[in-house]
Amino acid sequence: MKTAIISDIHSNLEALQTVLEHAGAAGVDNYICLGDVVGYNADPDACVDTIRKIPNMRCILGNHDAMAVGEGPLSGINQQALSAIQWTRDHLNDEDKAWLASLPLVITDPDA
Fold first, then answer.
1. 71: which of 48, 62, 88, 108 is 20 to 30 A away, CA to CA?
2. Nearest to 105 by CA among 73, 66, 76, 49
3. Rounded distance between C-alpha atoms, residue 23 and residue 77, angstroms
4. Cα 109 from Cα 13, distance rounded (Å)
């Protein structure tokens, strides 16, 4: 069994697609996302939709994800990150916001 661990996508669809193509070519069959699916770049909905559709994907809530859906304080970040979070809030659809808000902070593996 091969597992790909991805993180800090930050709405960069092209990079996400490249990573997933590489993982597919390597025979990956399980995925773990360590959060920050959204933030900074131009494709938050497309990145969330891509992550949501991957079979065997487990994902935790990143701080940018939490801020984008109003689950985390807008503090401790620079002005560029703040602007990106505010832009992302306006460009995420309700379904993707709900999915992000549902992500856990911790994943417990019962087989570990």
1. 108
2. 66
3. 31
4. 28
Q: Which two tokens stand for residue 2?
A: 């091969």
Mean pLDDT across the chain: 94
Q: Which two tokens stand for residue 62?
A: 């990143």
Which tens digits make up the pLDDT trace of 18-69? 999 999 999 999 999 999 999 999 999 999 999 999 998 999 999 999 999 9
Q: What is the SS3 assignment for 38?
A: coil
pLDDT score of 8: 98
Q: Give how far Cα 75 sits from Cα of 7, 24, 62, 65, Å.
A: 21, 37, 14, 14
| Residues contacting 107, CB < 8 A, separation 6+ | 32, 58, 60
Here the tokens at position 82 are 């703040």
Query: β-strand 30-33 against 57-59: which pairing, if any?
Result: parallel
| pLDDT (average), residues 1-23 | 97
Of 105 and 76, the structure prediction assigns the larger pLDDT to 105
**Residue with structure tokens 């990956």?**
28
